[in-house]
Design goal:
The protein has helices at 3-11, 30-40, 61-81, 96-108, 139-162, 190-213, 229-234, 237-246, 254-265; strands at residues 18-22, 44-49, 88-90, 113-118, 126-127, 130-131, 166-176, 216-222, 275-278. The protein is an alpha/beta fold. The chain has one domain (10-284): Rossmann fold (3-Layer(aba) Sandwich), CATH 3.40.50. The strands form two sheets. A seven-stranded parallel β-sheet has the order 3-2-1-4-7-8-9, with helices on both faces. It has a two-stranded antiparallel sheet with strand order 5-6. It is globular and about 45 Å long. The termini are far apart.
Length: 286
């Protein structure tokens, strides 16, 4: 096969495939890098982001303003970075009915999916780069974090399948972190437990959905990264610099993560139940 033909095949490896991308909040979102790479490789994306839903019936003015600002930033980011014709939907993963509405809306518009990226997390015990000690975390805080950051993977998958939107041989990827397994040099605490749950859910779903529908499920751990809201909530520049020193290849970049997601999204692979490290070797450094 000549190089030109091989390059065309590489560029179109996701042709006629469509993927749901969750968790884009602004131009720094890791999920946005994944969406761009999918489009670059010939795929289509639909995006779901946080905003006001019909199920927000008792919001305070402050909460409504917060959600509205998030929604506007999400919509503006998609229009500017992916194009105004990219389908967008509002999703609040704290609401079962919002997840169900998303699946129903995709079905109503005939938007079948060949996979999706779970890039959703929330932890109210993290404020201004300060992480609450685990012994001080309340049951409500713990359950809220676990529900949004881990169990939402189950519920999104459930509703997409129930609405007959997610196709057989689809690929599901989620974003995790090394703190699911190890105590990191910067505090993470409550979210660490949620990421560990997310990874265990990944493995269980890989077995369950692989056997029943040929669907693959994998999780990816990325380097410490300041560019996203999630990373900026806990990390300082010196933390990222320390991780780079510990990593044999230095910190991975968003493009590295995006291309690995593209690889896992391509049809026909027999890769599932994996917890992939895209971190320049950070995970081998003790």
């Amino acid at each position: 096969m000549d190089m030109g033909r091989r390059r065309i095949q590489m560029l179109s490896m996701l042709e006629n495939k469509r993927f749901l991308i969750t968790g884009i909040s602004d131009a720094g979102s890791l999920a946005l890098h994944a969406a761009k790479a999918i489009v670059e490789k010939g795929g289509e994306v639909v995006c779901a982001g946080l905003g006001v839903t019909p199920h927000h019936t008792a919001l305070s003015d402050k909460a409504r303003a917060y959600l509205s600002a998030n929604e506007q930033a999400f919509r503006d980011t998609i229009a500017q970075e992916l194009g105004a014709d990219t389908p967008v939907f509002i999703l609040d993963a704290t609401q079962e009915n919002s997840i169900k509405d998303l699946a129903s809306a995709l079905d109503a518009q005939g938007l079948k999916l060949n996979g999706f990226l779970h890039s959703i997390a929330m932890d109210r015990t993290i404020r201004n780069k300060k992480v609450k000690p685990l012994l001080e975390v309340t049951e409500e805080e713990f359950c809220d974090t676990l529900g949004v950051s881990a169990f939402s993977l189950v519920r999104i998958t459930h509703h997409l399948l129930h609405a007959d939107v997610l196709q057989s041989d689809a690929s599901i990827c989620s974003l995790s972190y090394i703190a699911a397994e190890k105590v990191t040099f910067h505090p993470y605490r409550n979210m660490s437990v949620a990421k560990a749950a997310l990874e265990r859910i990944t493995i269980e779903l890989a077995d369950e959905l692989g056997r029943s529908r040929g669907i693959r499920v994998n999780a990816l751990r990325f380097s410490p990264y300041l560019g996203s809201k999630a990373g900026n909530a806990t990390l300082d520049p010196q933390d990222v610099a320390k991780a780079a020193e510990m990593s044999p290849l230095g910190n991975a970049q968003p493009r590295d993560l995006a291309l690995e997601i593209v690889h896992l999204m391509q049809p026909g692979l027999r890769i599932t139940g994996e917890i992939r490290h895209i971190d320049g070797g950070y995970h081998i450094s003790g």
